[in-house]
Design brief:
Helix content: 10-25%
Oligomer: single chain
CATH architecture of one domain: Sandwich
CATH class of one domain: Mainly Beta
Shape: elongated
Strand order of the largest sheet: 1-6-5-4
Distance between the termini: 64 Å
Structural class: mainly beta
Number of helices: 2
Strand content: 25-35%
CATH topology of one domain: Immunoglobulin-like
Mean pLDDT: 75
Length: 141
């Protein structure tokens, strides 16, 4: 058996991702930070909840196109850049946020509803009641 030594440079991407995950996320989402979303399935609908602190309701755009539900917003840094002290650490992220989901068939598109309360976006995506079709035997003549 031949062993091939692993090049330590091959691990650089992984190492970089470990230290700067927000950069990787932005690259993978066309410069947008992915929204963190919880999805629950119920008998009659799906419920999606996304934390969006500091975002204004009028800055949220929700679209359904070709079976893809997309949530997008942009949060601008409205703080003044001039401060009396030195900035030691800046962890709050400002920019574009995006998340898309394939919803497929079986969704009541016209009945999707959204609510934004206390920085949490809640989407209710109703299911269409699909009757189980009985297989039909086709006779050959």
């Amino acid at each position: 058996m031949t062993l091939i030594p692993r090049n330590s440079l091959m691990n650089m991407n992984s190492l970089f991702d470990d230290f700067f995950p927000q950069f990787r996320d932005r690259v993978e989402n066309n410069g947008c930070v992915p929204l963190r979303v919880d999805i629950e399935e119920h008998d009659s609908n799906f419920t999606l909840k996304a934390d969006m602190p500091g975002v204004k309701k009028e800055d949220i755009n929700i679209e359904l196109h070709d079976g893809v539900l997309t949530i997008k917003t942009e949060q601008k840094d409205e703080r003044e850049e001039k401060t009396e002290g030195n900035l030691i650490r800046k962890e709050r992220i400002y920019g574009s946020y995006l998340r898309s989901f394939t919803v497929g068939k079986g969704i009541a598109v016209s009945d999707i509803s959204a609510e934004f309360v206390d920085g949490v976006l809640t989407l209710v995506v109703p299911k269409v009641s699909v009757e189980q079709a009985e297989p039909k035997r086709i006779e050959i003549s």
